[in-house]
Amino acid sequence: MTKRVDDIINEVIQIEAGYVNHPADRGGPTRYGITEAVARANGYRGAMQNLPRAFAHQLLKKRYFIEPGFEAAAEISREIAEELTDTGVNMGPPVATRFLQVALNALNRDQQDYPDIEEDGQLGPVTLRTLQAFLDKRGRLGEQVMLTALNCQQGARYIDIVRRDASQEAFIFGWLANRVVL
Fold first, then answer.
1. In this structure, are 83 and 171 located in the same domain?
2. d(Cα 46, Cα 1) in Å, to the nearest integer?
3. CA distance 31 to 53
4. Domain shared by 8 and 90, yes or no
5. 86, 16 in Cβ contact below 8 A?
6. Does residue 88 contact residue 95 with C-beta atoms inside 8 Å?
7. Cβ partners under 8 Å of residue 24, min gap 6
8. Stretches in the chain below the pLDDT threshold 50
9. Distance CA 27, CA 43 (A)
10. Is the dihedral of CA 178, 179, 180, 182 positive or negative?
11. What is the pLDDT, as a whole number, of residue 4?
């Protein structure tokens, strides 16, 4: 699993690219998807432009894969765990998990396939069992449908962000191109 985890984190780092400090970015100076506030809270004291890739990799793995439980989701579906991790880096792990829970509830055929679950943003055993039940019922196509459902929610959230704050229009094309379309 370690190699697969490293691959997932490396893909996030590739999407996030290098250093960014756009004046409209609410996260402020960011490197590899890690904001300065998160880097400082985790012991990094240098200039953000110089944040080491290895530090970023370990922090992303810990904070956005292991701690929110996406590691357990990867045992069920690597692709879904990858999507949750990417969304978690950009929007926070609870938001990514809530997207999964909302989609699972919407796709249960009015609770014929499995009962509704709480949409609390916590990836616990109930959500994991429900994801497994969904994939057992729907198979590979179900996995693709779930990925689409997660991306639809993510895209809708980006559009809502821009509707509420026009300064974020500078980012909408990249968000959609790099996180929803690809």
1. yes
2. 31
3. 9
4. no
5. no
6. yes
7. 167, 168, 170, 171
8. none
9. 18
10. positive
11. 80
Helical (H) or strand (E) element with 20: strand 19-20
- The token pair that represents 80 in the structure block: 């879904």
> Are residues 88 and 139 part of one domain?
yes
DSSP per-residue string spanning 42-93: TT--S-GGG--HHHHHHHHHIIIIITTTHHHHHHH-HHHHHHHHHHHHHH-H
- Domain that residue 40 falls in: 1-67
pLDDT at 18: 82
User: In total, how many domains does the chain have?
Assistant: 2
Kind of pairing, strands 34-35 and 30-31?
antiparallel
- What pLDDT score does 2 carry? 57
* Helix/strand/coil for 99: helix
What are the counts of helices (DSSP H) followed by strands (DSSP E) for the chain? 8, 3
